Amino acid sequence: MSMGYRFISTEKGTPDGNRAETCALLHLMCFAPECNQIDQFAIDCFNDVTGMDNPCITLHDVQSKAGTNITPGKLGEYLATLFENCVSEFSQYFVTLTLFIGGVSSTTLQDPTLTEFVFHHLQPKAQASVRDHLERACRKRDNDIPDELINDDNIDDFLSRVRFVIAKKDETEYIRALAHNSSAILPDRRTLLNIFGQIRDQQSSLKNRKGIAGKVIGRPDAVMDFGRIMSARQIRLLVIQRLLNMDFLTKDSPDSFRPYLNSLPPEMRSEDVEEDCRNELNLQYFDKNNKDAFWRLLDKVVTVLQDEPDADIQDVYSRIDNDTLASCTRLTRRSHLYFIATIKDGLRP
Predict the structure, then answer these.
(1) CA gap 236, 172 in Å, rounded
(2) What does the pLDDT look like over 289-299, one tens digit per residue?
(3) Whole-number Cα distances in Å, 26 to 19, 115, 167, 171
(4) Are 279 and 336 in contact (CB under 8 A)?
């Protein structure tokens, strides 16, 4: 009978460690092959960061280390937590396993230019060292790995699956990726760093909550009960709110939309119109299957308004090409106008 998954104690965060863990989270959101399948993150539960689908059944596990000149021996030691999950009662749920690091020593890789790699990309001597130190770390750790699971077959299987990712030197690259490198609206570096800092602080606040060491869960979705979850939606919304200087999903109608509302027939309730617009924008912004359409529209609107800041929202709408408008399949003409008004107000000094 399955005994479930028991959480173990975790280390206290450091400034460098917290930064690395946020980079790891944003890597899962922006650059991992599975990024479109990740809806939320468990913080300091299964590991430093674990990406999950909406039902919390598919887990993308990440162990994060901030060091920048990590030796093969250290790589092996750092892999022990991921190996523990790989052979745990929840092994079937851990779909990907990633060691996220600041960098490796110069003799580790066959091709030193790689920033994402797998075990067979290591130099032969480095492979032997990683394997040896991994096995030793697993046998020394105060954990739940039975000795019989620390065998050649399990270690070989694990090493064939694990990924290694080197963090980007500039954390603003992750924020640019979240904003789809939208050249028309990206703010200065200081603002991008501030957005990164806000995400890091939210993540750190969850990490610093009361510990869950010793608690046992029978299914991955039970992790939702511990108050250590960040949603991808929440993070994306924070980014767009900072870029537009307002919350376009919950705020009262933008001032620039008022003249349009006042022009509608009296029997059309403005509250209903506004709510419909916000709902449609919500659907468009979070449409995973068509995420580029929103950012193309955003770029077009900002470009027009940069040329003519005082343009009426209907004039701006008329200057956007039909392909861009049609690609936003969730938006009607009215919600397009609402969005244009939101951007116009957000761009005001």
Answers:
(1) 14
(2) 888 899 899 98
(3) 11, 16, 10, 9
(4) no
